[in-house]
Amino acid sequence: MSYMIHRPRRLRKTAAIRSLVRETRLAPENFVLPLFVCPGTGVRREISSMPGVFNLSIDELTTDVAAAQDIGVRSIILFGLPETKDEIASGAYAEDGIVQRAIRAVRQSSPEMIIMADTCLCEYTSHGHCGVVRDGEVINDDSLELLARTALSQAAAGADLVAPSAMMDGQVEAIRTLLDAEGFENTAIMSYAVKYASGFYGPFREAAQSAPEFGDRRAYQMDPPNAREAMRETELDYSEGADILMVKPATVYLDVLKMVRERFDIPCAAYHVSGEYALIKAAAQKGWIDEERVMLETLTSIKRAGADIILTYYAREAIRALKK
Asked: Active site includes 85?
């Protein structure tokens, strides 16, 4: 019998053998830790829907970044909660904006940390949408200048990468053009190339206080049933100069992530988003699952599907688990 010759179980016999032949490996450098920075001093406010994740003032942020670096975290991405909001998201591109100040502080306190900045307007607009709104509609082309100015201010503050996430057509080209013109040709762009209008963003909107004041974001974020369209979106961002292509969310779009990985030969990222994190946390708190095991299995699935980079709120816990 053929199974007498071919016995796959031979290579599963011990933990050492399983490790020897393992096809997909997670490593600390794969992970990017998202962090939320807010005004004030001494602020460490836990997000109710995301246990273990906090809104942090800059002083607390630098402490957390240093501690994360000691664990083995090598990259962070910053999201900001401004002091005030307005219709044109002026806090997003202000030289003294909350994220710009945070970038400078982290650059000084943890100079080796890779700093990424989310480049969007929703956290800074009074209406909560990702672009300029006129007569109840998000105006694509008018938003491009503000997104580019935001990216430039983040690069000037010291960000290694800017990460446009607004899903405005042409945003990568607008950002690349302005960065290059202003002498920031070496600042990389990690584009949220495929960002679905997902129900998994709920906890993030609590964390970033960015829920839309009216309507939703389905007119500019991608329709979940569409995969071929994702390839068009990715091709556009690639052709406009994106250095890294991202799929968001991760686990419910692994098929799309695999398509992106197979079609494009630049680094691919995936965002294990707030709702995906919250589901694991909630089930673990109920005692229904082994949190660490499910966390690692989930992150491994994202890596196996093709992600070189994984943005995850579990970055610290994953690195600790990998060291065991």
From this structure: no
**Could you state, in order of their start, the residue ranges of all structural domains in the chain?**
25-217+235-245
| 55-60 average pLDDT score | 98
| Residue of 195, 281, 303, 323 with catalytic role | 195
The length of the chain in residues reads 324
Strand partners, 222: 196
Mean of the per-residue pLDDT values for the chain? 95
Q: Which residues contact 226 (CB under 8 A, 6 or more apart)?
A: none
Cβ density class 96-112: b for 16+ within 10 Å, e for less: ebbbbbbbbbbbebbee
Read off the tokens for 9: 């179980």
Selecting among 248, 258, 286, 303, the annotated active-site residue is 248
Structure token pair of residue 174: 């607008």
**Catalytic site includes residue 248:** yes
Q: Tell me what the mean pLDDT of segment 285-295 comes to.
A: 98
8 A C-beta contact, residue 190 and residue 162: yes
Which helix H or strand E contains 63, and what residues bound it?
helix 58-71
Summarised one tens digit per residue, pLDDT across range 144-163 is 999 999 999 999 999 999 99
Report the CATH fold assignment for 25-217+235-245. Answer: TIM Barrel (3.20.20)
CB atoms within 10 A of CB 293: 11
Cβ within 8 Å of residue 319, ≥6 positions away: 28, 31, 71, 72, 73
Rounded to an integer, what distance in angstroms lies between the CA atom of residue 97 and that of residue 86? Answer: 13
The pLDDT tens digits for 83-136 are 999 999 999 999 999 999 999 999 999 999 999 999 999 999 999 899 999 988
- Confidence bin at 1 (pLDDT 50/70/90): low
